[in-house]
Protein backbone atom coordinates (compact mmCIF):
# COMPACT_ATOMS: atom_id res chain seq x y z
CA UNK A 1 0.00 0.00 0.00
CA UNK A 2 1.21 3.47 -0.70
CA UNK A 3 2.08 6.01 2.00
CA UNK A 4 0.26 9.33 1.59
CA UNK A 5 1.49 12.42 3.36
CA UNK A 6 0.69 16.04 2.63
CA UNK A 7 1.89 19.17 4.37
CA UNK A 8 -1.15 21.33 5.22
CA UNK A 9 0.41 24.70 6.25
CA UNK A 10 3.21 25.36 8.68
CA UNK A 11 1.08 24.23 11.62
CA UNK A 12 -0.87 21.12 10.59
CA UNK A 13 0.40 17.83 9.30
CA UNK A 14 -2.00 15.13 8.25
CA UNK A 15 -1.33 11.54 7.41
CA UNK A 16 -4.25 9.68 5.85
CA UNK A 17 -3.42 6.09 6.63
CA UNK A 18 -4.60 2.87 5.13
CA UNK A 19 -1.50 0.99 6.18
CA UNK A 20 1.43 3.27 6.69
CA UNK A 21 4.13 4.14 9.13
CA UNK A 22 4.68 7.69 10.30
CA UNK A 23 7.47 9.77 8.82
CA UNK A 24 9.72 11.94 10.94
CA UNK A 25 8.03 15.34 11.06
CA UNK A 26 8.64 18.60 12.88
CA UNK A 27 6.75 19.30 16.08
CA UNK A 28 3.57 21.29 15.46
CA UNK A 29 1.80 23.73 17.75
CA UNK A 30 -1.76 22.96 18.96
CA UNK A 31 -4.53 24.11 16.63
CA UNK A 32 -6.05 26.74 18.89
CA UNK A 33 -3.00 28.95 18.38
CA UNK A 34 -4.08 29.78 14.83
CA UNK A 35 -7.60 28.47 14.28
CA UNK A 36 -8.58 31.39 11.99
CA UNK A 37 -6.00 30.42 9.38
CA UNK A 38 -7.08 26.79 9.66
CA UNK A 39 -10.68 27.69 8.89
CA UNK A 40 -9.41 29.78 5.97
CA UNK A 41 -7.58 26.71 4.64
CA UNK A 42 -10.80 24.73 4.77
CA UNK A 43 -12.84 27.45 3.07
CA UNK A 44 -10.21 27.68 0.32
CA UNK A 45 -10.56 23.92 -0.20
CA UNK A 46 -14.34 24.28 -0.53
CA UNK A 47 -14.06 27.18 -2.99
CA UNK A 48 -11.51 25.21 -4.99
CA UNK A 49 -8.74 27.67 -5.88
CA UNK A 50 -7.03 26.32 -8.97
CA UNK A 51 -3.63 27.68 -7.97
CA UNK A 52 -3.17 25.52 -4.85
CA UNK A 53 -1.76 22.02 -5.00
CA UNK A 54 -1.87 19.48 -2.21
CA UNK A 55 -4.42 17.79 -0.03
CA UNK A 56 -7.85 19.31 -0.59
CA UNK A 57 -9.97 17.28 1.82
CA UNK A 58 -10.73 13.88 3.27
CA UNK A 59 -14.18 12.44 2.60
CA UNK A 60 -15.76 9.54 4.44
CA UNK A 61 -19.02 7.73 3.89
CA UNK A 62 -21.32 6.86 6.77
CA UNK A 63 -24.55 5.00 7.38
CA UNK A 64 -25.49 7.45 10.18
CA UNK A 65 -24.49 11.09 9.76
CA UNK A 66 -26.08 12.00 13.11
CA UNK A 67 -23.33 10.23 15.06
CA UNK A 68 -20.63 12.01 13.08
CA UNK A 69 -22.39 15.33 13.74
CA UNK A 70 -22.30 14.61 17.47
CA UNK A 71 -18.64 13.58 17.25
CA UNK A 72 -17.44 16.65 15.34
CA UNK A 73 -19.76 19.25 16.90
CA UNK A 74 -19.70 18.12 20.52
CA UNK A 75 -16.39 16.34 21.09
CA UNK A 76 -14.00 17.98 18.61
CA UNK A 77 -15.74 21.39 18.54
CA UNK A 78 -15.09 21.57 14.79
CA UNK A 79 -16.30 24.40 12.61
CA UNK A 80 -19.07 23.33 10.23
CA UNK A 81 -18.13 24.77 6.85
CA UNK A 82 -20.51 22.73 4.68
CA UNK A 83 -24.08 21.67 5.38
CA UNK A 84 -25.81 20.23 2.33
CA UNK A 85 -28.93 18.08 2.22
CA UNK A 86 -30.10 16.69 -1.12
CA UNK A 87 -33.54 15.23 -0.29
CA UNK A 88 -33.75 11.48 -0.89
CA UNK A 89 -30.15 11.49 -2.23
CA UNK A 90 -27.56 12.37 0.42
CA UNK A 91 -26.56 14.52 3.37
CA UNK A 92 -23.13 16.13 3.47
CA UNK A 93 -21.33 17.83 6.36
CA UNK A 94 -17.95 19.48 6.02
CA UNK A 95 -15.91 20.12 9.15
CA UNK A 96 -12.75 22.14 9.47
CA UNK A 97 -10.52 20.41 12.00
CA UNK A 98 -6.94 21.58 12.48
CA UNK A 99 -6.85 23.04 8.99
CA UNK A 100 -8.12 19.89 7.31
CA UNK A 101 -11.49 19.76 5.58
CA UNK A 102 -13.16 16.51 6.61
CA UNK A 103 -16.33 15.81 4.64
CA UNK A 104 -18.83 13.27 5.91
CA UNK A 105 -21.44 11.98 3.46
CA UNK A 106 -24.44 9.74 4.02
CA UNK A 107 -25.96 8.25 0.89
CA UNK A 108 -29.65 8.06 1.74
CA UNK A 109 -30.38 5.44 -0.92
CA UNK A 110 -27.49 3.10 -0.08
CA UNK A 111 -25.98 3.99 3.30
CA UNK A 112 -22.47 2.57 3.77
CA UNK A 113 -20.61 2.38 7.09
CA UNK A 114 -17.33 4.27 7.26
CA UNK A 115 -15.07 1.26 7.63
CA UNK A 116 -11.60 2.27 8.80
CA UNK A 117 -10.34 5.83 8.39
CA UNK A 118 -7.49 7.19 10.49
CA UNK A 119 -6.28 10.79 10.39
CA UNK A 120 -3.12 11.57 12.37
CA UNK A 121 -1.75 14.87 13.62
CA UNK A 122 1.62 15.59 15.18
CA UNK A 123 1.27 17.86 18.22
CA UNK A 124 3.73 19.41 20.64
CA UNK A 125 1.58 18.78 23.74
CA UNK A 126 -0.61 15.67 23.59
CA UNK A 127 -1.74 16.19 27.22
CA UNK A 128 -3.21 19.60 26.29
CA UNK A 129 -5.07 18.07 23.33
CA UNK A 130 -6.36 15.26 25.54
CA UNK A 131 -7.54 17.73 28.20
CA UNK A 132 -9.28 19.87 25.57
CA UNK A 133 -11.06 16.99 23.81
CA UNK A 134 -12.04 15.09 26.96
CA UNK A 135 -13.15 18.36 28.59
CA UNK A 136 -15.51 19.03 25.66
CA UNK A 137 -16.85 15.52 25.98
CA UNK A 138 -17.39 15.76 29.77
CA UNK A 139 -19.24 19.07 29.36
CA UNK A 140 -21.59 17.55 26.77
CA UNK A 141 -24.71 15.44 27.00
CA UNK A 142 -22.77 12.59 25.36
CA UNK A 143 -21.04 11.90 28.67
CA UNK A 144 -24.43 11.09 30.19
CA UNK A 145 -25.30 8.40 27.65
CA UNK A 146 -25.14 4.74 28.58
CA UNK A 147 -21.72 3.22 27.83
CA UNK A 148 -23.05 1.19 24.90
CA UNK A 149 -24.56 4.24 23.17
CA UNK A 150 -21.61 6.51 23.95
CA UNK A 151 -19.15 3.99 22.50
CA UNK A 152 -20.97 4.20 19.16
CA UNK A 153 -20.04 7.90 18.99
CA UNK A 154 -16.72 8.37 20.82
CA UNK A 155 -13.99 6.47 22.67
CA UNK A 156 -10.64 7.67 24.01
CA UNK A 157 -7.34 5.88 24.40
CA UNK A 158 -3.95 7.15 25.57
CA UNK A 159 -0.90 5.14 24.53
CA UNK A 160 2.10 6.46 26.48
CA UNK A 161 4.85 4.69 24.53
CA UNK A 162 4.15 3.66 20.94
CA UNK A 163 6.41 3.30 17.94
CA UNK A 164 5.40 5.39 14.93
CA UNK A 165 7.78 4.73 12.10
CA UNK A 166 11.18 4.59 13.76
CA UNK A 167 10.31 6.98 16.59
CA UNK A 168 8.65 6.76 19.99
CA UNK A 169 5.56 8.83 20.69
CA UNK A 170 2.86 9.43 23.23
CA UNK A 171 -0.38 8.89 21.30
CA UNK A 172 -3.92 10.00 22.09
CA UNK A 173 -6.63 8.35 20.00
CA UNK A 174 -10.14 9.71 19.61
CA UNK A 175 -12.24 7.06 17.94
CA UNK A 176 -15.52 8.15 16.44
CA UNK A 177 -18.40 6.38 14.73
CA UNK A 178 -17.97 3.38 12.46
CA UNK A 179 -14.17 3.08 12.61
CA UNK A 180 -13.33 6.75 12.11
CA UNK A 181 -10.32 7.78 14.22
CA UNK A 182 -8.24 10.88 14.82
CA UNK A 183 -4.83 10.31 16.40
CA UNK A 184 -2.49 12.81 18.03
CA UNK A 185 1.21 11.98 18.30
CA UNK A 186 3.76 13.78 20.46
CA UNK A 187 7.18 12.52 19.44
CA UNK A 188 9.92 12.08 22.02
Short account of what is shown:
The chain has about 190 residues and is an alpha+beta fold. The chain contains 4 helices and 10 strands; from the N terminus they run E-E-H-E-H-E-E-E-E-H-H-E-E-E.
Q: What's the Cα radius of gyration? A: 16 Å
| Fold-level CATH name | 2,3-Dihydroxybiphenyl 1,2-Dioxygenase, domain 1
Sheet with most strands: 6 strands, mixed
Q: Tell me the strand order in the biggest sheet.
A: 1-2-7-10-9-8
- Helix/strand-derived class? alpha+beta
Strand/helix succession: EEHEHEEEEHHEEE
Q: Look at the structure and name the CATH superfamily.
A: 2,3-Dihydroxybiphenyl 1,2-Dioxygenase, domain 1
Poorly predicted parts: 1-37
DSSP helical segment count: 4
> Would you count the extended β strands for me?
10
Mean pLDDT: 79
Tell me, what's the shape? globular
Number of domains: 1
> For the record, what CATH class applies?
Alpha Beta
Structure overview:
There is one protein chain. This protein has a 6-stranded mixed beta sheet, with helices on one face. Strands 3-6-5-4 form a 4-stranded mixed beta sheet. The protein has 4 helices and 10 strands, in the order ββαβαββββααβββ. The radius of gyration is 16 Å and the shape is globular. The model is unreliable at 1-37 (pLDDT under 50). The two termini are 27 Å apart. The chain is 22% helix and 37% strand. By secondary structure, the chain is of the alpha+beta class. The protein has one domain: 2,3-Dihydroxybiphenyl 1,2-Dioxygenase, domain 1, CATH 3.10.180.10.
